[in-house]
Amino acid sequence: MTAGELYHADDPAIAAAGLAARSACWRLGQTDPADEASYDAQLRDLLGTVGEDVIVWPGLRVDYGTNIHLADGVFLNVDATILDVCPVHIGKDTRIGPGVQLLTPLHPLTDHALRATGWEYGAPVTIGENCWFGGNVTVCPGVTVGDNVVVGAGSVVTRDLPDNVLAVGTPARVVRQL
């Protein structure tokens, strides 16, 4: 699955891991954010790596959690969705706005039989350091975003973005250097 190979989400082991992650997200959502020790401990149990000074506001949804890696100083605003069938790395001091979706799952396009029977594969998402994503940004599978990138609200990032740019739109396009 994490290597980009075909997998079936209904495989018993994969389904059990997904259910455990959804349950963990639910429990995290029921925890008073003012109880920082409990909230932080649950977050660290759910995700693969959590750096120092990471803030995750309520409403986080993940596929498995274990493939998500947050560097120091990462901020995830409310209702972040990270579908992590492949690794998702978010760099130091990156800020993610409300309702952002980071997606790694893909479905076979040309093999109709595989798609109809629920087969999937994935591609990783990597976000550099000191980035800022506005609300409701979607990052598609296989995308790498460089350092010091700002992505405007509502943008859909379908291709890699280089360092030091502002990108906006659907699909997101670089509109200027930063």
TrEMBL record:
Recorded GO CC terms: cytosol
Maltose/galactoside acetyltransferase domain sequence ranges: 1-52
Coiled-coil spans in chain: none
Protein name, as recorded: Sugar O-acetyltransferase
One Pfam family linked to the record: Hexapep_2
PANTHER family the record matches: ACETYLTRANSFERASE C18B11.09C-RELATED, SIALIC ACID SYNTHASE-RELATED
Gene Ontology molecular function terms on file: acetyltransferase activity; O-acyltransferase activity
Family: Belongs to the transferase hexapeptide repeat family.
Keyword set, alphabetical order: Acyltransferase, Transferase
Cited InterPro entries: Hexapep, Hexapeptide_acetyltransf, Mac_dom, Trimer_LpxA-like_sf
